[in-house]
Amino acid sequence: xxxxxxxxxxxxxxxxxRMLVAAGLLVVAAGCRQDMHNTPTAQPLRESxxxxxxxxxxxxxxxxxxxxxxxxxxxxxxxKSDAVLVDALPFPLTAEVLDRGEQRYNIYCAPCxxxxxxxxxxxxxxxxRQPPSYHVDRLRTLPLGHYYDVxxxxxxxxxxxxxxxxxxxxxxxxxxxxxxxxxxxxxxxxFPQEERDKLSKPAAAAAPGGHK
Length: 212
Ligand code: HEC
Known about the structure:
The chain is mainly α. The protein has a domain at 93-206: Cytochrome Bc1 Complex, Chain D, domain 2. The chain has helices spanning 16-32, 74-78, 95-108, 110-113, 122-125, 137-141, 144-153, 167-184, 193-200, 203-206, and strands at 80-81, 84-85. Helix 3 packs across helix 8 and helix 7 packs across helix 8 (167-184).
């Protein structure tokens, strides 16, 4: 029967022999000096101490976002806003952005698309499928977001560059491709008078410098 009042629970005093055993165990345990040798840390790919039969590296809870990697700006990260390709750089255009774009373009795109975007890069000369020139009307008039999208997801025979090129650099390249397009298709009226004069002179004087 249960004791109605636990406070009156009378326990038998420990026998002398038991006390001796307990004291002996204490001495032995102290002699082992385990200190912090066995810490209860989780070894990432070993079995968990906490839940049997599973790895202590637990899968991420669905929807987990690592600090600093929240992609809450759809236009910046996908090139689309409400499923429509955006036609503007999602950050201010500066000379540094274009320089960066030129450098990345020459590394990642020129091998196929050529330094001036004609689609005559070295890999194409060696037999890879020839991409279209950037200087055709269809590509000139496509929104900037299309270039970002092609780099992010690939396009037909072209592989994607999502892993190699960070989002901001993809935009910088897209801006640089626009600059390349303008370099081959700028209306003369946009040039300063001095340059226009040069254009109307005989070809030798107006020979355009090659793209570096
Ligand atoms: C390995 C060669 C290769 C590289 C490197 C490459 N491309 Fe391409 N690209 C292609 C080919 C081939 C096509 C044509 C694909 C097709 O039509 O199937 C293409 C097509 C394109 C198009 C046209 C899409 C359209 O609407 O027709 C764009 C824009 C483009 N590439 C941008 C880039 C940019 C920017 C880079 C650098 C980040 C790049 N490409 C790197 C091979 C390449």
